[in-house]
Structures are given as structure tokens and as C-alpha cells.
Design brief:
About 40% of the residues lie in helices and about 15% in strands. With about 400 residues, the chain is an alpha/beta fold. α3 runs antiparallel to α12. Bound molecules: pyridoxal-5'-phosphate.
Length: about 400
Amino acid sequence: MQYDFDRLVDRRHTHSSKWDLSHAMFGEKDLLNMWVADMDFPCPQPVVEALRRRVEHPFYGYTFAPDSLYDAIIEWVGKRYGWSIKKEWIVFNPGVIEGLYSAIKALAKPGDEIVVQPPVYYPFYQAIKQAGCQLVYNPLRLEGTRYTMDLEGLEGKFRPATTFPTHYPRVKALVLCSPHNPVARVWSRGELEELGRVCLANRCAIIADEIHCDLTVGEARHTVMASVSKELEQHTITLMSASKTFNLAGLHTSYAIIPQAQWRDQFRQARVGHGSVNLFGLVAMEAAYRHGDDYLRQLLDYLKGNVGLFTGYIRENIPAIHVVPPEGTYLAWVDMRRLGLDNLQLQRLIRQKARLAVNDGYAFGPGGDGFQRFNLACPRSVVREALGRLEAALPGR
Ligand SMILES: Cc1ncc(COP(=O)(O)O)c(C=O)c1O
């Protein structure tokens, strides 16, 4: 079927965080909402139909993931990423971030160090701190307009904790964001191979948050970290979900893929609660993976158009700011450092003058100052409106 992503749908008064919490979050009314990472597009029609069928049967008791859902996930990951996974590797979680909390607790003890590569999705920081672990920053490098991982910097983090009694490194894991929110990089296979080499050499586990894996722009191709080699497969906990791809985040259903049996046990033990899953989330995920190809193809095409419009318009008309070319996600990371404003002044300009609700770069940690993150998963007319507001707020720049 043909999806109409141009259609504006009023999402107010639907318990939408993006639309109904905007005032509370930003302290201003009637902002144009381009913040939290959910899409202003309805989810695929087959998902709606599957949910409707299930709602009609008015029993919503405890549930479990059926074999057919495991099969749908195995097929999706196999056909899109060439990674052949086994049913027993899959562990369901409410959300990817809950999965991250469990993964950290499974792999590290309080006091251990965990590496993140800022600027990065900020709930990572809290997950590490809550496990009693120490955050180690290995900031991304911005070379020209392109972010890369600082692998030399990473090597430097693996000093032995002490020369006696053991040389075992204190850095236990690295949290990889792939594709990377907020800088929208899709890491190449070569980059992941290099990262994997450094991590393996230092017995550092990889927790790969690949929630945005299906969302690539143009020619960019996502590589699953764990699929790079058999050794890395055993060394990685992969966190995935259908939630970003098909706009299902409110259904709170995701999964971890953990090939190493011992880590799987540790992950299950670290989990809070008994691992029950959301009935509607399971139904929606299976319908999306089985019948969502068509939607995803059209969505990626539409998002590419939005990215092109946003990037090109700013390049031509608002040269004082610059969009880091997005390769994946539907997020645009906009460099506003040349405006010469501090974070508070920039925030005021964007909220009060441009009337936009977008995410402040500094919230993503080191390297985020002077940036703003825009969510481009919205009808094109909204992108145009945002560009007009930005241009008007930055006269003569
Ligand atoms: C990189 C990344 N991980 C995790 C999440 C949140 O996932 P969940 O809602 O499944 O916890 C997001 C949401 O924006 C994200 O961008």
C-alpha cells in the first residue's frame, strides 16, 4: 500500500510525550515539536490491524513470546544484516534502555569502568552510574564535518588497574551507539572491525545499542557489530527493537541478542522483574517484521527527502549554522557554534525566538555544546516551517 507521510495528524491529547509534554519540558507553549525520537507518522497499517484483532479478544493476561515472533526476528536480522542468529540467543526486554541497564549489570561490578563515546544518547550515562560503575569518556572526533571514533584514545583507556595482583583491565565494556544518536553516523564495517580489534585485544565487552539499525539514509548500510566476526559475536550484547523503525516506542518491547550463554544467564539474573513482556508490543513487533518492508522502503525514501531539504536549505540560506550530514537515524545534528552563543543563549534563541522544541546538544555530554538535535521524522511541511522559523530567528547570519 502507499503511505502518505505528508499528512499532518494532530497528536495532541493522545498521551504523546512529544506533543503533550512539550510545554512542561520546554516552558513555552505552541512550539514546533521536533524533539524526542518518535515519528509523526502513523505506524504501518498491518500493525494497526494486528493490534485491533488482538484487542477484540478481551483477555490481556500474562503472556509470552510465541515461536512465530522469534522466527520473525531471526528472519529480519538475517535478511537485512546477513546475521544468522539462534532462537535461544534472544532475550526480550521492555525497552532498549532497560536492556542496557541489565547488560551493564551483567558484565560489570560496581567500581568497574564502562566506556561511552560522547556526544551520545544521554540515558547511557545514568545506566552506567546506576550500576555503580565509572563513566569513561572516549569522545568522538569531529574531523571537518564528519565524526569518527577515536581508537587511539580508546587504547589509552585500557591501562592495567594495578600491576599486582592482576593485570586484568578495569574497563569492562564499551557502549556502542550504532547508528550513533545524536551525530547520525552509520559506522562502516571497517570502522567496526577496528573497534572490535581494540576491544577484543583488551577483553572489553561491547554492548551495542542498534535501535536505529533499520534507519539509514541513501547509500549508507548498517553493519551489525556482532556480525563482523565469530569472535565478536561471542563478545557483544546487541540491543534491538522495532520501535524506532515502525514508531512503536510506547509499546515498550525490545530484545537483546546474546550469543554467549554465560552472559545470557548473567543478563537474565541482572534483570529487574521476571522478564514478562508486553502483549501488544509482541503482536505489533511480529506484524511489523512480517509485513513492514513496504512501509520501511517508503519511509526511508521520504526521510531521505527531508534530510536533503533540511541540509540543502541550511547550506544555501543559513550559512552561519551547519548540519552534520546524517547517514542514519532520522535525527539531524546541527552545529550552531559559529553563532558564538553560550548554551543558555542558544536555548533561548531556539525556543523563544525560533519557537522550536528540539534537543539541546549539551545534554548529550562532552562535545555537545553549541549543537541542537532536530527530529526530521515529520511531514515535509513541518520541516519547511522549521526552516522558515530558523531563518527568521537568525537574520543576517
Ligand atoms: C540510541 C537509543 N537507544 C535507546 C533509545 C530508547 O529506547 P527504548 O525506548 O526502547 O528504551 C533511544 C531513543 O531515542 C535511542 O536513540
